[in-house]
C-alpha cells in the first residue's frame, strides 16, 4: 500500500512539473487579467484601438506615470483607469475612496481615482505634444471602470459621472454602442469634429511606440505586465537566446511541439526584430529558434518585488517595450 502511495506521489510530482506552473497559477490574483479583459471588450464595443500598460514620462517629476489604457478612435481618445475595488465604497469630503469589505477586513483608503485619471490625461497630452501630436482642446477625456463583481456601493448618487460601475459595465453589449458612447461623453464631444486622418495616424503611431510595461501572454487567457529580466536554462539554450534583447526584439511567439499528447520537450520561438515603421516588421522578417520548453523567463510583475519564473511551455507570447 505504501509503495502504491509513494509511486502515486512521484507520478503526481512528475505530471505537475510538466503540466503546471506555480507562477502561472498565482497570476490569477493579479490585476492584469481584469485590465486586458476590459481592453478586449472596449475594442470590440467601440471599434477603436486600445493601448494597455503604458508608462508615460512625466516631465514635471522626471518619472513615468502608469496609465492602464488609452482608447483611440477617429472621434476621440479616452484615458481609462481600471479599478478592482471591492466592498461598500464611500467617498470622503477630500475625494478619497474608502472600501469596506466587511467586519473581518480592514477598510482600505484609496486616492480619488477620477482626480488621478484627470492628472494622467494632462501628462499624456504633454507627452503627445512633445512628440509632435497637437490635439484639439478637450480631445482626450478620462473614465474609471470598476471591474470587480464584488463591488457594491450604497452611495451611488455620489459616484462621479466619469465612473462606470460594475453593473453598468456588465450591461454593455456589442449592439448597445449608444449606451456605451453615452458614458464616454468627453471623447465624443470632442469627436464631433473629426481630426484629420493624418493626425489620427500619428496619434496611433506615437502610442504604439510609447514606453509601456513588458507583457506576457500565458496559457489560460492570462496576462502579466511587468519587466522581463532574462532567460534561465541550459547553456546552449541561453546562448541561442542571447540576441533576444529589448533593443533588438519587440515580440516573441512560442509554438509548441507535442508527441502523443505528452508535454513538449522543445518549443519553437518566433521573434520579430524591433522596427519603428508604422506597419511594423513583415512576416518574412520574423526569425525562429528551437529550444527546450523547460527554459524559463525571469519576469518581475508590475507592483511586485518578487521575481517570477515562467517556463516557455506555459507562455504564448511576450512583448518587450523599447
TrEMBL record:
PROSITE patterns: NERD. InterPro entries: NERD. Pfam families: NERD (PF08378). Residues 30-147 form the NERD domain. This is NERD domain-containing protein. It comes from Vitis vinifera (Grape).
